[in-house]
Here is the input.
Amino acid sequence: MSLIQITLSHGDKGVVIVLNGWTFCAHGHECCGVCKLDTRLHNDGIAQNVKAPGPDHRQGLSVAGRFAAHRSGQRGVAFHCKEHSTQDCAKCFNWNKLVKANAKKRNSGKVENRDRLLQLLRALGVDFAEFKKLVTPALEKKLTMALDYAQKLVLFSDGIPLLPTMLPLWTAEDNSREFDPDKGDMTVQDILLSIRFLGDPVDIEQLRETVLAIAKHYTSGADTFILQDANKEAAIGMRVLGVYKLNGAMPLITVVFKDVAGPAIPVLKGLMQSGAKERTVEEIACTPDHQLLIRRLLFRNSARLSPEYSPAQHRAEKDFTLSFIVPLSSLHKSHLGMIAHNAGCVVCGKLQTNRCSACLSERYCGAECQNEHWQEHKTVCRSVRDGKWMAFRFSDADIMMDGSRRYTHIAEPNMSPMNQKRQAQRARSGEPPENIHGDKVFLINLLDGGVTGTRIEIHDRTASIRSHIHKEDNGEHIHELLPESDDWYHMYRWAKRTGDWELSICLDRKPSENPLW
Here is the structure.
């Protein structure tokens, strides 16, 4: 099929671009559900009588955001790469190299578009201004951290690689248990209902409706689903293989899945019908963003299965991927703190950084970025350096009404059971928390302790410190920390560890922006 034939056969939506001899839709995709265009066969030089790519055909390439248009001749338009402003750039548009890289990439499910990554992080409730400067690999790492925290990976990480057949099956007795997704107690019909994320209420509701539909059909006897958006830009086909009991309480659902671009959805559905119960594939509405989140999670979990796990699969599923789903819950504030930790160079976003030696409050990858940022940073740098600092003693103990002290330990959701036990033992023994900051400045969150003017709760971003500042330990100095208004709830301040049980806190210099943790 010629370039002209491709354009004419798809009308106004079929306007195409040509880059180094290959053809893409106007959005920059080989396979586009919006344009209803698939140029893979044309680009591969396959015979015209092949009507559509088969299920084993390669994943479509996308050059979206990597090209721009320019005038060519009096009325013509041509396209060039953005990086070098070169038409038919052999470096940016080396198709053999990109096809091979794309084949490897699809096995990991990574998202490599910066804007999309930021959008997905916001949908998960992870929205930090400094992330806008992070490079793409760093953003992808933050996304996978968020997904792993959401599924409480630490609770079963010791058992990876997982071999489901060595786990007990989820039984009818387990079905009778009361459903509580944050505790991991649920019936089989609620297994998939537990995929929950923080973020915009609309996003949460849409994702919950998607998972609710899967749960409803699964408990009614269906085992095969196809998740797709309204425009059919992409889809995930999924078949549930079994349900097992992980760590005695958490259901683990093994699945086999395949993700495809829009034009291949009918082919995928046909393949799945051959092995589905009653030849029925349940269609579930799922937005493109939610598909990306579920897809990334499935690929991540696929790598966590033991190579020995080889359940029976239908003949049509030879190109499908084994994976599993576990209950997901909302992200905790301590999760947000861990994800936000080390947001990279404040100028370029690179993760290999050192702090400003004067104030220790900003990160830079090198002298060049630090010099570039100095005009903007110097006011904050000098204010933190020259601010009013005061030392305060803190304690892990609560002071009771009779004046006695009781050491308490607050369980952190991002800790493994073993680390939870160690932390509890440390708290009971009265040992100070580990100093992970050294002599560097860091942010702490101060919260109203509920007893006016006598107790302030404090924690740092990673929850390495989660303690109290008591009036009994600091006298009237505690009032230096309190804002003039009586209706405060919490605030952020710069601090430095100056002893096992002592913090030096900057009283009159606030951070430029309040974090979310």
Notes: Confidence is low (pLDDT under 50) at residues 1-13, 178-202.
